[in-house]
Amino acid sequence: MSPLIIIGIVIGILVILMIVLYFVGNKMQKKQIDQKEQINAAAQPTSMFIIDKKIMPLKDAKLPKVVMDQLPKRYQKAKVPIVKAKVGPQVATLICDDAIYEDVPKHGEVKAMVSGVYLVGVKTLHKNTRKRQQQEELDEKGRKKKGTMRQRMMRRQAEYQKQLSQEVETRKMKAQEKEMKAKEKKDRERAKKIVD
Q1: CA distance 43 to 115
Q2: For FRET with 195, which of 2, 10, 176, 186 sits at 20 to 30 Å CA-CA?
Q3: Would you give the distance in Å from CA 179 to the centre of its chain?
Q4: Could you report the per-residue pLDDT of 120-155, keeping only the tens digit for each?
Q5: SS3 of 83, please?
């Protein structure tokens, strides 16, 4: 076989693989958006005091037994952002959304949106808490700490998730505008038929 034929076959396989990955990625993205919408729809506002936040394996997080039983084995060893918070008289362990993990203050009172054991949104109640957290992020020279590779990747992932959320919102707005225009057009056509 000539090298050109082998290179052609390899390029063909790579193109097919890229096309398959594109469609699988789109399908997974739509699935993720639907899941986020369901989680956000079930979220309830709660006031809580954040005790601690860490990135740790789920098996070490001391989540309720019901949650751990429902998780597949491969996810039990995965490291995820965990937040320990005092909700009323109880201390609860919550799984934090990657996009808001950096916004969660350590040792601060927050107004949060919680869906089951999943922390969806956070708003700090005291301005001083946010200022103190920002000062902790600075090194001795006053520059922002670089952080570990994992922290940088989580920040980047949070940025991408925020961009995705904005894109989803703009698509919804455009779809609503399109529906409104179609409805107005039907109403005008109906009005013309009545006048004629």
Answers
A1: 4
A2: 176
A3: 28
A4: 888 776 666 666 665 666 656 666 666 677 777 777
A5: strand
State the pairing for strand pair 118-124/44-57.
unpaired
Structure tokens at 70: 């429902």
Using alpha carbons, list the distances in angstroms from residue 186 to 131, 153, 177, 181, 182.
54, 49, 14, 9, 6
Identify the three-state secondary structure at position 122.
strand
Report in angstroms the alpha-carbon separations of 97 from 47, 55, 82, 109, 157: 17, 11, 9, 18, 11
139: which residues sit within 8 A by CB, 6+ positions away? 145
Residue pLDDT, tens place only, 92-131: 888 888 778 877 888 878 888 888 888 888 877 666 666 6
Our CA angle for 170, 174, 179, nearest 5°, is: 150
β-pairing verdict for 108-115 and 79-87: unpaired
Which residues, at least 6 apart from 61, have a Cβ–Cβ distance to it below 8 Å? Answer: 80, 82, 93, 95
d(CA 117, CA 99): 16
Q: Could you give the CA distance from residue 110 to residue 94 in angstroms, rounded to a whole number?
A: 14
Q: What is the dihedral of CA 185, 187, 189, 190, to 10 degrees?
A: 160
55 token code pair: 């990135």
Check residue 145 and report its DSSP letter. Answer: P
